[in-house]
């Protein structure tokens, strides 16, 4: 969701130029830029004449790469890049099929349709030609030339549960279908499928997968076309795929050739680049061990580093530019193959990601961003629902490096609400404050104005209240008073204000013990109440409230339950949590770090056990954590599209770095530091402690260090420590 999205967007695409080869990396899992080309020069983000020290350790969990990053990247990728992505995917599929990694069996077959009708037809191109099994321009349905919407209706010949469609349309990109929706007949009316709404399309072949927002079980489908890029609506063929028989196959028209071997990239690496002093590795799955490689400037010249591929992995961690301010691009060369360009620098990943993360959250707000319409089931941000985790991420993002965000340009101006029921309970801010603080204000304002009492939404307010000592220089005191009154007033309420999509909460008392493990949707991660309760405990102590202890006891009781009951070997507790695993691990590490003498017995060993599982399941060529110790790679959930793997992949680095300090074995600790470099992370971080905290005073006196995304008081004792 949106808060977690911040994390994804911080992994910006590496090169200042967008090339087809870099884009093809996305197909193999190197999730790239939120905005291609934005990651350019060292001082682009920090807005200073020289590199700036980070104020605090950077924070990976809430500052990772995310689910929406893939959609954002594709929406801003030049057309020539799509071909490279598509060809890379097809080539990878062909390689897997050839290698026998997929179990043998009959391939899925499209449904044999009974008939088709259209609201408009240009003779002789009847609707039936769109379902005749022939994908040619001669055998097509074509509407009359019109500016009015047209529809193509399909009779399935029976009732089926559907996975999606392949739609072959138009003559070329200039005449493709631009805007369309797919609807299904249910309960006497046409129902929209949220994932099947296409806007601004220029492709002549579409693979439209139906998500799990609704179960598409029907006897009829309708393609509703509202705009084309040029002329009439044209469909050469539609293939309708049932949900049975496995995943909907890739989009390959009859006669389409798989990419030639020469088109398959040989070197895969983090195209955003690498931080100095951190692991730098690449994968070369088709190159034999012993192949020499070198790192050189992208502009040419002598090799700056040489090495040898071992285990189909090249490691150039030892390579560091002689000048820390060197802004050159580099490439890896192995035999005749050259990687995409990348950079190496001090705080490089932070530099190429900060502004992209802010831009995304600015633009994705309701009513005041670039989307002013109503988005069903959302509140402050598009598609946030109740498990958007926005303040979970925005607050730590700000506190990890306040001065960097203060130097960024201002893009947000306060807008009064058109409807006072949407926002406005919090007094407006000054125009000169950082945009990130304005976003924090927005997130809290929406929750308290709409009086959202879902446990995940009211829990977000603990982050706002905890951070007030750092926010009060920017926001009116009234903001704190309003949020404090609402949060403490509804914290232990069991009832919710309304129904929510995907809601798995049996009740909403944040002080209650949560013994349920959520589904693979990721909207009920184990231990989600630990962190908010620890934060509100510190707020209550700061306020000298007599009930402060009950928030700590709730967090302790929940952490103890996890120690006793959660089985890390069960993928549902970790990888099955889709985009929310970081909530579990960072909460546990926060507890152990900040309250070591009061933590539940066995908590350290529990964190260590998680690390052993994740390292064991990542022992493969891709440094990619498998679902289990067998051959399964991704969770599938109760329904076919519930795994949504990117969210879990990009959230993993936060958990890795958070757990690292609590792992006893040195080799395992080193491996936990290495894995994030392959799964696209940035640095570790923490949130500042309450100023009055005894733990903070002790931390300052002993000079504690920290790693991982945690709320730790020791972490910010020294603002000049190097982030991981």
What's the number of helices?
Answer: 19
N- to C-terminal separation? Answer: 26 Å
State mean pLDDT (0 to 100 scale): 78
How much of the polypeptide forms β-strand, as a percent range? 5-15%
By helix and strand content, what is the structural category? Answer: alpha+beta
List low-pLDDT spans.
4-104, 254-261, 679-724
Q: How does the overall form come out from the CA principal axes?
A: globular
SSE topology sketch:
Elements: H1 2-9, H2 20-28, H3 67-75, H4 79-99, E1 115-118, E2 141-142, E3 150-169, E4 177-186, E5 189-198, E6 205-209, E7 217-228, E8 234-242, E9 274-275, E10 281-283, E11 292-297, E12 305-308, E13 313-315, E14 330-334, E15 337-338, E16 344-345, H5 348-351, H6 354-363, H7 390-400, H8 402-406, H9 435-449, H10 455-466, H11 468-471, H12 477-490, H13 530-542, H14 548-565, H15 581-594, H16 603-617, H17 645-659, H18 666-678, H19 694-702
Parallel strand pairs: 9-16
Antiparallel strand pairs: 1-3, 2-8, 3-6, 3-7, 3-8, 4-5, 4-7, 10-13, 11-12, 11-14, 14-15
Helix pairs in contact: 1-6, 1-7, 2-4, 7-9, 7-10, 9-10, 9-12, 10-12, 10-13, 13-14, 15-17, 17-18
